[in-house]
From TrEMBL:
It comes from Carassius auratus. The gene is LOC113059715. Belongs to the apolipoprotein C1 family. Keywords: Lipid transport, Secreted, Signal, Transport. It comes from the Eukaryota. GO terms for cellular component: high-density lipoprotein particle; very-low-density lipoprotein particle. One of its GO terms (biological process) is negative regulation of lipid catabolic process. InterPro entries: ApoC-1_sf, ApoC-I. Pfam families: ApoC-I (PF04691). It is found in: Secreted. GO terms for molecular function: fatty acid binding; phospholipase inhibitor activity. This is Apolipoprotein C-I-like.
Amino acid sequence: MLIRQLSTAIKGQAICGTLQSQPNSLEDCRKGKITKMKLYLAAAVLMLVLAVHTEAQDEPTLEQQFAKFQTKVMELTEDLTQKTKTTFEELEKNELVIKTRNWLTEQFEAMKDKIAASII
């Protein structure tokens, strides 16, 4: 909105042959006095406004937002996979897990031997 007003004001003033700015005071406004703005100053202000406006328009598109979301999900799953793998590796090395596994194996073998002895 500001860009449109500024560019319209500069274009209108350039057509008249002079670039004018706002009155310096209320009294100047009553008298109809308007100070003249230099062309280079008007051009600099317009370039500054256009630069700010183009920076504000650099918002990502919907496609870019989905690509960014996909990348984040992939990173999250890779991280979760790595953490899960590490946790299982640590569990395999845990002393309680090793003792439990060995006890269950011994109990299974003992039961298997009893069943084999009763069949024969």
